[in-house]
Amino acid sequence: MSLSELPIQPRPLNDEERATYEWQTWVPDFGEEGQERLKGATVLISRVGGLGSVVAYELAAAGVGRMILAHAGDVKASDLNRQLLMTHAQLGKPRIQSAERRLRELNPRLEIVPVAENINEENAARWVGEADLVIDCAPLFEERFLMNREAVRQSKPMVECAMFELQAQITTIIPGETPCLACLFPERPPAWKREFPVFGAVSGTVGCLAAMEAIKLIAGVGESLSGELLTMDLRTMTFRKHRVSRRPGCAVCDT
Amino acid sequence: MKVTIQCFAQLAQAAGASEHTRELNEGATAQDALRAFADSTTEAARALLFTDGGELQPTILLFLDEEPILWAEPAPARDGSSLFVATPIAGG
Q1: Which residues of B touch A47 (CB under 8 A)?
Q2: Which of A6, A83, A191, B5 has the highest CB neighbour number within 10 Å of its CB?
């Protein structure tokens, strides 16, 4: 699947949208046609925490037409260093409600499908099936593997991003062409913990990169990170791109 | 010859730093470099890399001079080589 092959039905812009997105429609190879593809796209974001908040905010700003946001639980104080769609005023209230409110302030035209639960066995097929593109920002490998399995099964591209401390990584999975998540990590990492050290600026950095990957995939511009893992160490500002390979016999994508 | 082991994420934290250099004999492989590192690092870092049975954890990604390598296929290193070792991370 090349970048221009993502099957999205473009939706025409109105005058307000032309004015709102004027600066980015000046980008070569993007133009009004790219903007119409963004408007016609549906993106699923699994969790709108540290990573997903920034992904959703940037995509809302860019004019993606429809977003499915999946995130359970209520806003906690410890969310607020990085989960930029959560606010002090919303402490104790559902995260998905806070996220929806913030996104609507930024882009009232955005169609949001708020899902007040995390991706799980019961809902994964439905929400992945409704999306043109999925973005994996979940903290638990069980959820990530589930998203990966459904994305591969339904041939949906998936942007895969992660962080730890001052480091982060991102890759784009194109089913049938690139390694899937299970090629890279064939089983649940035994030492991974749900809570870990990180700055919001780290999740924000990789969240912006994930949003840019999504925009490129939807609009068919530039080169994606398909088949490459970009790692970054913000302690030293070292960025590396590593080629990654499919795993023969992968239980998800080589069956 | 000298090989630098570049640790990423949890491994860097467990090992106390992201960059470690090991002196190896000529003809050594990336696998030799990782074994040498594991033999002289912290217990926590060793546990992230290898199972109790001494096998590489299947979730470890290895890149020798930016190219992906498989643990089962010995990859010759050279003086100045860099072995990037990544442990899995997620969102949150």
Answers
A1: 91
A2: A83
Residue B23, CB-side half-sphere exposure with 13 Å CA sphere: 0
- Joined together, the tokens standing for residue A13 give 């812009």
Residue of B nearest to A162 (CA): B90
Chains A, B: CB pairs < 8 Å: 95
Instruction: Look at the domain A41-243 and name its fold.
Output: Rossmann fold (3.40.50)
CATH code at position B35: 3.10.20.30
The DSSP bridge pattern shows strands A228-233 and A167-173 to be antiparallel
**pLDDT tens sequence for chain B (92 residues):** 999 999 999 999 999 999 999 999 999 999 999 999 999 999 999 999 999 999 999 999 999 999 999 999 999 999 999 999 999 999 99
| ipTM score | 0.95
Hey, is the C-beta of A65 within 8 angstroms of any chain B C-beta? no
Chain A positions in Cβ-Cβ contact with residue B47 (cut-off 8 Å): 191
Q: Which residues contact A65 (CB under 8 A, 6 or more apart)?
A: A11, A38, A39, A40, A41, A42, A109, A110, A111
